[in-house]
From TrEMBL:
Polar residues bias (residue ranges): 1-11
Disordered as annotated region, ranges: 1-21
Lineage: Archaea, Methanobacteriati, Methanobacteriota, Stenosarchaea group, Halobacteria
Domain of life: Archaea
Organism, scientific name: Haloarcula rubra
InterPro entries on file: HalOD1
Segments forming domain Halobacterial output: 49-116
Protein name: Halobacterial output domain-containing protein
Pfam family of the protein (one): HalOD1
Length: 118
């Protein structure tokens, strides 16, 4: 019998650095164990969405984010950052969804969600 209540694995994390010294501070990372969707929250005023995406995928894959394909293959990183910089996406229900490195990625104000691409 399956549990009708979705379970979530949650971790509190701090500073995640990439090879060039830039970083994205995830304030909360959680994985839904049934859907395998991982959601990471970040402060859009201090961290860029274009860095949060490869950092989260790199964490899930257990590899350096710099070894992942260029984000340009999936989305324009500058446009993504512009949409979510300085809370511009706040209170307007804005989201961007795209495929990247074998994952379906959705960026919303202050959060990145990834799940295996189907």
């Amino acid at each position: 019998m399956t549990d009708p209540t979705p379970s979530t694995v949650r971790e509190q994390s701090g500073h995640d650095a990439v090879a060039d010294g830039t970083a994205c501070d995830f304030t909360d990372v959680s994985t839904h164990t049934q859907t395998h969707e991982t959601r990471a929250e970040f402060d859009g005023t201090t961290s860029l969405a274009s860095l949060a995406v490869p950092e989260l995928v790199g964490r899930l894959e257990g590899i350096d984010p710099c070894s992942l394909p260029s984000l340009y293959e999936s989305v324009n990183p500058e446009a993504l950052d512009e949409l979510f910089a300085d809370d511009r996406g706040a209170n307007c229900n804005l989201s961007v969804t795209f495929d990247y490195a074998g994952y379906r990625v959705t960026v919303r104000d202050g959060a990145v969600s990834v799940s295996p691409a189907e």
